[in-house]
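SUBJECT: A protein chain and its fold
Encoding: whole-number codes for local backbone shapes
Chain under study, with its fold:
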Amino acid sequence: MRQLREFRGEVPELSGTVLTEAERSFVTTLRREGTARPRRSRRPLLAVAGLATAAAGVAVAVLLTSTTPVTTRPPVAGGQPSVGASSPAVRLKPVSVAEVLDLAAAAPVVTPGPGQFVVTESIVQDQAFAGDDGRYLYRVKRTTWISADNTKPGAIRAENLEPLPFPGRPVPAGVPAAGTVNTNVLCPAKGGEIRQDYAFYGTLPADAQGMLTYFRKFPGGGADKNYYLWKAGTELAAAAMPAAQHTAVFQALKLVPGAQLVGDTKDAAGRDGIAVGYVSTTQGLRFELIFDSATFGYLGSRAVVVDAATAGAPAGTQLAATAQLSVTVTDETPPAALGPKQQPCA
């Protein structure tokens, strides 16, 4: 395996304009087959890869067979497996933003039934303020139960994790203590575009251009229109939706000018992944989408400082991040109470 990886490093990295659609189709098809079928021996897999590369006339990527154990999650209520970062048989080394997003578009999705809930477990990190000048990075483990057809109250569970200091500052006194847990009712959303349920997402465009047009409806604005398109796509990349719309989101992201291949990185849970990103020069941040380097399932997102003067933090600082730990479906929600200022669901 080490020799294969070293060999891959000697192959010139080609831009998306050089790679042909036939090559992309081969890579995506092989990825899908690798997910659906049992593992095969290394020799046939590498032989197929060599034939396809020779036929195309250029080196696309070295295809590797995973030597680590495959971890799968057990089925949950309703019979749906968890969608996460379980390792398939094939590991690929994408060489362009378009390849990463093509593979992400083909990743499996959950399919809830009528009356079920989509359960999303994640870790969230972001900037927070306390007092007159206190600044720190809060971290929360969050689980949401959202009615797939928006007909039932769901729930949201938030567990405070240990906060992190903002670079150059101590964590302010009085911030929420780690270990505090609250589980509150999550009422069905009233009104079109504030909905975040599976049924609503199923009404969105199922083609790249139509989805890109939908991106433009998200709040935001300013001089860098492409950043707001990327931001909208980032929000939708984390959402559970039908396969057609899921694919359209990542195909639409390919149409946003200025995206770049970031390469190897880690998400907020410390998992290894591969990232693509967009740099907002007005904020001095690169906003990244992170995918499992084997399955290309969505792992999370990051906001990383690239311009210290603009962002007010050292270059390389991770100011915000998410890690999507699992997406499953279930028939029930846990007991939940109304929040302090929350009205009963209508």
Summary: The chain has a mean pLDDT of 80. The chain has two domains: 2-96, 117-330. The radius of gyration is 21 Å.
